[in-house]
Amino acid sequence: MADRIVLMLTHGPEDPERATIPLSTAVAAQASEVEVLLGFQSNAVSLLKNGTIDHVFAPGFPPLKQLFDVYREAGGKFLACAPCVQSRSLNQEDLIPGTQIVSGATFVKEFTASSHVLVY
Q1: How far is 4 from 89, CA to CA, in rounded Å?
Q2: In what order do the strands lie in the sheet with 35-40?
Q3: Spatial separation of the C-alpha atoms in residues 109 and 52, rounded to whole Å
Q4: 93 vs 83: CA distance, rounded Å
Q5: Statement: residue 2 has pLDDT above 80
Q6: Is residue 16's pLDDT more than 60?
Q7: List of domains in the chain
Q8: Nearest to 77 by CA among 54, 110, 49, 51
């Protein structure tokens, strides 16, 4: 199996460090020519709300928006848990461009197609 990782985020803007570490890891993976996919569950879907990442900063790390932009420019995708999005009364128009709202089955498919899955 080729190197492909899925990073699942479960922390949102209330915990800037735990929200930023997986983005930093994703960018490092891309720079190492490892395919990476980001999944957002629980309060991490709040990071995908338009404008939220502009205000998330963790000491010692680049701004979260910068990491999101680098990840996306390198072909990165954002998958958001459908029930998590719905429970926060969000819809597709509320989310940053390129976000896909997906079911648990989609996450399982991505997990089984990857060499590693990490949850933050």
Answers
A1: 32
A2: 99-102, 78-81, 35-40, 4-9, 116-119
A3: 28
A4: 16
A5: no
A6: yes
A7: 4-119 (3.40.1260.10)
A8: 110
Compute how many other C-beta atoms are within 10 angstroms of the C-beta atom of residue 102: 18
Side-chain-side CA neighbours of residue 69 (13 Å): 8
Mean pLDDT score, 43-58: 97
pLDDT higher than 60, residue 28: yes
Distance of CA 54 to the CA centre of its chain: 15
Structure tokens at 118: 């990490």
Both tokens of 71, joined, read: 């990840």
d(CA 57, CA 75): 23
Q: Is the dihedral of CA 112, 114, 116, 119 positive or negative?
A: negative
Q: How large a percentage of the chain has pLDDT more than 70? A: 98
The predicted structure's pLDDT at residue 1: 43
CB 95 within 8 A of CB 48: yes
Q: CA-to-CA distance for 76 and 35, rounded, in angstroms?
A: 8
Question: Which H helix or E strand runs over 25?
Answer: helix 16-31
Residue 48 in tokens: 């995908």
